[in-house]
Write a structure and sequence with these properties.
2 copies of one chain form a homodimer.
Chain A (H helix, E strand, L loop, with lengths): L7 H8 L3 H8 L7 H14 L5 H8 L4 E6 L5 H16 L3 E6 L4 H13 L4 E4 L9 H7 L4 E4 L9 E5 L1 H14 L4 E7 L4 H16 L3 E8 L3 H12 L7 E4 L2 H13 L9 E3 L16 E3 L2 H17 L7 E4 L2 E3 L10
Chain A binds a DNA duplex through helix 2 and helix 4.
Chain lengths: 337, 337
DNA sequence: ATCTTGTTTTAGAACGATCTAAATTAAGGG
DNA sequence: CCCTTAATTTAGATCGTTCTAAAACAAGAT
């Protein structure tokens, strides 16, 4: 079963040149004569030669492999992100090692060791909740280039690709205020990540900038069910809000289910706005107003940052922040002015 | 920046033993004395030694790496599948190389070559549309173990993990018939894959077994938009159906949007049933009746089949088929008897 | 002819692990 | 104290590539 590999040496023998020459041909070096190149390439095709990248890495230290760590593969935000990364890496003839940390520090540590063992050239990391701000320094000391994405620890210690949630939240709040909504509550996940911090900062700022009232923060876990259940908590607030801005579309969708169960019509009685504009936003009832963050674009940007870093380890740290876009649908359509 | 790797040799030197001994310790061989093992392990920890799996593979031909090829990373069916694969592989201390064929034969070929070059131990393949039935034989001739999943070419030539769509479609049709629906149309994607064949076979059989009428097949492409547009085609059928069974939930959700736009109330005027029970099924309006296929379970099964195959290349070909479960929601709730 | 100069090609040592086959050590028996 | 057997340890070759430094060759200048 285990067919034996065709090696450089065999190609060399058949083509009547040395291994070194074949190696040069494989790597498209300009040093070899046109005639020789052609002959060697023909032999490679005949023998179905496939270069062993592992062996090559052993010598020249480039595996054309990058690791990607996401905290979650169910949330389609992360999978679109992943699609963006994979797309760009594929174009550069690199391969993606995928791992899911499940937002668990222990798993994240294991995965990093595994990646290290496999000799990845670099890592795109979406740090798990509770990741120490020292991790980037640690990875650096291992000689492992990192790009953080979507979440960040140790601000500015590594390249970063993300969305501008401060701006995204501002867009959403402004929109609600224009519609005449006055009191806005933020429905957040409990997990303490930079993704949460950023949205909360944006919320505080946007409230301060507009004439809206701060309707407080309600926390839930990241799932429809949790969010649907938290509808009760929102409705029971002392001073009931007339709009709810949600951490993401998943919470928004769940909240709308919970609201309708409680006899409150989302969009009319209470405006609901999500963040991320996941595909599902079009399918909820009513269709969900959301702020598009283009996760695939963020993934692509992260991949390009890493490619740049691999090409030049001393390049200055760079941040690639994608601008958000408000998508208005029926869950906030009604103008109550 | 590029920190130098700690090698077996360095550990050996510090611990005062030979490289061979350290290698045995790394691989947890029972051959080394308890005392030596402890000393070596301590040194490994001190020096932060990480075994170079690429170098190891060069010698012993096992990279602890498997490739996974999916046709799509947007459809959450595939990402849940992927999550299942990753989970099991992680448990076995293997790493997943991910690639997206985008249902493109050319890309699929490239990816397979790339995987070959990286020395993957095996591949989990969800073949792209139009994949030749010879591909399994080809991979076999490369000495590359494959498990097919979700789709299949060259039936029986490799291990396979999938869902029982014939049964799934039967469950859906029976359900509709019990509700008093008489004429059922199948809304399908156009792409000619085994996934489509299987559903169509199931549909024909289920129609034959029950007293339902065959409402014909309408084709669309795999997207909400396409499916929403095809609502018109469904409503314009000669003999309008009173139920539509859809290729998957994405089409079903799109169809319901299109129907409502056309003034037809899904669930009341026309029953709609999906397949796969994606998370979004709970969030559509009305909530979508669907058949749960447990994609994560299929992914896990595929991973286990591959692990088994890697352990024993001569094991008999095996199929792992997961049983479907009907989930009734409002899109088909009304009994019209 | 010999010397440059420039272009191609190459022998042989890496890279970091594992394997094979043999050497060393320890323990028990006579 | 030597011999046998079992338990540990090891030297050195090996996997498939790339690198370094030098060799071989060609062509023009002297």
């Amino acid at each position: 079963m285990q067919r034996k590999r065709v090696t450089l040496g065999q190609v060399a023998q058949v083509a009547g040149v040395s291994r070194a020459t074949v190696s040069l041909v494989v790597r498209k070096s300009p040093l070899v004569a046109e005639q020789t190149r052609e002959r060697v390439e023909q032999v490679m095709a005949e023998l179905d030669y496939v270069r062993d990248i592992g062996a090559a890495r052993l010598r020249n230290n480039s595996s054309r492999t990058v690791g990607v760590i996401v905290p979650n593969l169910v949330n389609s935000f992360f999978t679109e992100f992943l699609a963006g990364v994979e797309q760009v890496m594929g174009e550069e003839d690199r391969v993606v090692l995928l791992a899911n940390s499940q937002d668990d520090l222990h798993r994240q540590r294991e995965i990093l060791q595994r990646f290290r063992g496999h000799g990845v050239d670099g890592v795109i990391l979406c740090p798990a909740e509770g990741t120490s701000a020292d991790l980037p320094a640690q990875l650096h000391s291992w000689g492992l280039p990192v790009v953080q994405s979507l979440r960040e620890v140790g601000q500015g210690s590594t390249d970063y690709a993300g969305a501008d949630y401060v701006e995204g939240v501002r867009l959403a709040v402004q929109h609600l205020v224009h519609l005449g909504r006055r009191r806005i509550t933020f429905l957040s996940v409990a997990a303490k990540t930079s993704a949460r911090e950023e949205r909360l900062i944006g919320f505080a700022r946007a409230i301060a900038e507009t004439c809206a009232e701060d309707g407080g923060i309600v926390e839930t876990d990241l799932s429809w069910e949790g969010s649907a259940n938290s509808a009760a908590a929102v409705l029971a607030l002392d001073n009931r809000p007339d709009a709810v801005l949600c951490f993401n579309d998943i919470l928004a969708a769940g909240l709308m289910l919970g609201l309708r169960d409680a006899g409150v019509e989302p969009g009319r009685d209470l405006a609901v706005v999500g963040l991320d504009d996941l595909p599902l936003a079009k399918l909820t009832y009513p269709p969900l107003t959301s702020v598009a963050m283009n996760p695939a674009g963020i993934g692509a940007a992260a991949a390009r940052l890493l490619a740049r870093r691999l090409a030049d380890a001393d390049a200055p740290v760079e941040r690639s922040i994608i601008a958000p876009r408000l998508i208005v649908r029926d869950s906030s359509a009604l103008n109550v002015n």
